[in-house]
TrEMBL record:
Keywords for the protein's UniProt record, in alphabetical order: Kinase, Membrane, Transferase, Transmembrane, Transmembrane helix, Two-component regulatory system
Histidine kinase/HSP90-like ATPase domain ranges (all copies): 163-255
Species, as recorded: Paracidobacterium acidisoli
Record flagged with keyword Nucleus: no
Cellular-component GO terms for this entry: membrane
InterPro entries, per database record: HATPase_C_sf (IPR036890), HATPase_dom (IPR003594), Sensor_HK_TwoCompSys (IPR050482), Sig_transdc_His_kin_sub3_dim/P (IPR011712)
Any coiled-coil regions, as ranges: none
Domain of life of the organism encoding this protein: Bacteria
Gene Ontology MF terms: phosphorelay sensor kinase activity; protein dimerization activity
Matches recorded under Gene3D superfamilies: 1.20.5.1930, Histidine kinase-like ATPase, C-terminal domain (3.30.565.10)
Membrane-crossing segments per the record: 27-45
CDD domains from the UniProt entry: HATPase_UhpB-NarQ-NarX-like
Keyword check for Isomerase: no
Protein's name according to its UniProt entry: Histidine kinase/HSP90-like ATPase domain-containing protein
């Protein structure tokens, strides 16, 4: 365009809108908004988790009561009747053996029902609740015998997610039951170890131990490994004749993001997707 030429009409007209530019107050406002949003999301997610866990625990308590009043009571009644029949009837040797087998099956069924009821008990998610519940389980199974039972927690104790608490309790129950039934131990240590982002349960006895390559008939060890696998936890059993046995299960604990962490992630995301100042 030469110097004398008229200006294009757009240049001569009034300015309707300037292009938007990010300024410091805008950015501060935006950050405050993001922090507020993160706080709201954090609060709502926390509430939802709480409501869901509370509903699950209430349902479990109802189930535990129902199982106690039906299943466990029936096993106790059947066992009582069978025992009376066995003692009072003049049974042949073969019938006596059959009656004893039936009584043993009822006893195991009753024991299993009690174990399931104990596993439904609320309060396992707290680390001290878990350690106490396992110690009580060991005391109940050892029936006031000479076994010295110790339960401990170390590291920074945290709340356990429901699936981890359930799995640890079930594995703990089986490891304790094995020690009491097979090890002839004098001492049992039940411990929970909290690491930076994992938690481990150890059940250790000083009993007879066993050769790991031997053929094992029961479902217990296999079941413990399967339960751990189902939640992505690591299962380990170390034993040897005369060396005692240690069962270890280790689960990853994803740390629940805190409010500053939510906010930090939100700001990082915005910076990555591009706020440009000029
Ligand atoms: N803590 C232990 N001390 C000594 N021996 C053990 C211990 N734990 C397991 N065992 C041995 O390993 C075997 C297999 O254990 P597992 O729990 O799989 O089956 P079980 O206890 O015999 O039967 P189930 O668990 O099905 O009632 C046991 O029979 C026992 O010989
Ligand atoms: Mg077993």
């Amino acid at each position: 365009m030469h110097p004398g030429a008229p200006m294009p009409s757009a240049s001569r007209g009034a300015v309707i809108a300037l292009p938007f530019r990010w300024s410091a107050p805008h950015i501060l406002l935006m950050i405050a908004g993001v922090l507020l949003m993160a706080a709201a999301i954090h609060f709502v997610l926390g509430r939802l988790r709480l409501w869901r866990d509370r509903a699950v625990l209430e349902e479990r308590q109802r189930l535990a009561l129902e199982m106690h009043d039906t299943l466990a009571q029936s096993f106790a009644g059947i066992g009582f009747q069978l025992q009376a029949m066995r003692d009072e009837l003049r049974l042949s040797e073969s019938l006596r053996i059959q009656a004893d087998t039936a009584l043993e099956m009822v006893r195991r069924g009753h024991e299993e029902a009690k174990r399931s009821i104990a596993a439904l008990r609320p309060g396992l998610s707290g680390s001290s609740g878990m350690a106490d519940a396992l110690r009580r389980e060991a005391e109940r199974l050892s029936n006031g015998g000479a076994l010295a039972i110790r339960a401990s927690i170390d590291g920074q104790a945290r709340h356990l997610p429901l699936n981890v608490a359930d799995t640890f309790f079930r594995i703990g129950q089986e490891a304790i039951s094995n020690s009491i039934r097979h090890a002839g131990a004098t001492r049992m240590d039940i411990s929970l170890h909290f690491g930076k982002d994992d938690v481990a349960l150890l059940v250790k006895d000083d009993g007879s131990g066993f050769e790991l390559n031997a053929q094992h008939q029961g479902f217990g060890i296999c079941g413990m490994a399967k339960r751990a696998d189902r939640i992505g936890a690591l299962f380990a059993l170390s034993s040897g004749a005369g060396k005692g046995t240690t069962v270890t299960v280790t689960a990853h604990l994803s740390s629940r993001p805190t409010l500053p962490e939510h906010a930090r992630r939100a700001v990082k995301y915005l910076l990555r997707t591009g706020i440009h100042t000029s």
